[in-house]
Specification:
By secondary structure, this protein is of the alpha/beta class. The protein has helices at 38-48, 58-68, 99-105, 117-125, and strands at residues 12-19, 24-26, 53-57, 73-76, 84-86, 89-92, 110-113, 131-136, 145-146, 158-165, 172-178. It contains 4 helices and 11 strands. The strands form 2 sheets. The protein has a 9-stranded mixed sheet with strand order 5-6-4-3-7-1-8-11-10. Strands 2-9 form a two-stranded antiparallel sheet. The radius of gyration is 17 Å and the shape is globular. It binds NADP nicotinamide-adenine-dinucleotide phosphate. The site of NADP nicotinamide-adenine-dinucleotide phosphate has 31 residues, from β1, β2, β3, α2 and α4. Residues 17-18, 25-26, 29-33, 56-60, 63, 76-79, 93-95, 114-119, 122, 145, 149 line the site of NADP nicotinamide-adenine-dinucleotide phosphate.
């Protein structure tokens, strides 16, 4: 029997979000993201091609399932007790099992956090958000879904790594690093 302990590796967790100027990610839990620019879409798709897996919430999955079925996708849901696999999709309840361990055992090195609001919040609170790419589209929504849906106030420090204007209409891509991340990237 091989008694050598398997060295666990550090996963890089990268969150991607598109927001309005007033920090909303959607009109409602069931609406799509048809308001984002093609420049953001191109950046997003290119970035995802470098990731081993993505994490989404059940609502986001329901909206984007046709596109997600080709990716290793972990769908967070309270509806299962044990992980339920269907092709490349795994329905996973992080209240029942340790998500970080699950992803380690899959040997993923880079995992994209794709939202929505409970998923961003869960990942931030559980040290699963090392980098954040935030695209601000030039709209004000006045109401809608906020990026983070937590139930108590907490302050997390991020440092700005880059700012890029993606097009003439003023779409801005911000790259942040979580100041508490221990990942070297
Ligand atoms: N602009 C953007 O970048 C962006 C990104 C992502 C999504 N969106 C938009 O945001 C909206 C959806 O966001 P949302 O916040 O309403 O929904 P969501 O996070 O996609 O899904 C919420 C659902 O996921 C499950 N879930 C999430 N976190 C969980 C956890 N920690 N433990 C157990 N279950 C968990 C629960 O489903 P169960 O009921 O199955 O338990 C929960 O009701 C959509 O309109 C989508 O298009 C926008």
């Amino acid at each position: 029997m091989n008694r050598k302990r398997k060295l666990s590796h550090k996963i890089l967790y990268v969150a991607y979000v598109a927001t309005s100027i007033d920090g909303k990610i959607a009109k409602s839990g069931h609406s799509g993201t048809d308001w984002t620019s093609k420049e953001d879409w191109n950046f997003f798709q290119k970035s995802l091609s470098q990731m081993d897996a993505v994490i989404v919430g059940h609502n986001t999955y329901n909206i984007a399932k046709d596109r997600l079925k080709w990716r290793n996708t972990i769908v967070l849901t309270s509806k299962v007790d044990t992980p339920k696999q269907s092709g490349k999709i795994v329905f996973f309840n992080p209240e029942k099992l340790n998500l970080k361990k699950f992803l380690q055992n899959k040997n993923y090195k880079k995992v994209a956090v794709l939202g929505g609001s409970r998923v961003y919040d869960f990942c931030l609170c559980n040290k699963m958000l090392d980098k954040l790419y935030m695209t601000i589209e030039p709209y004000v929504f006045t109401s809608g879904v906020s990026m983070f849906l937590g139930n108590k106030f907490k302050k997390y420090k991020f440092s700005l790594q880059s700012v890029k204007k993606l097009n003439k209409k003023g779409t801005i891509l911000l790259q942040y690093k979580n100041a508490n991340s221990s990942h070297k990237n």
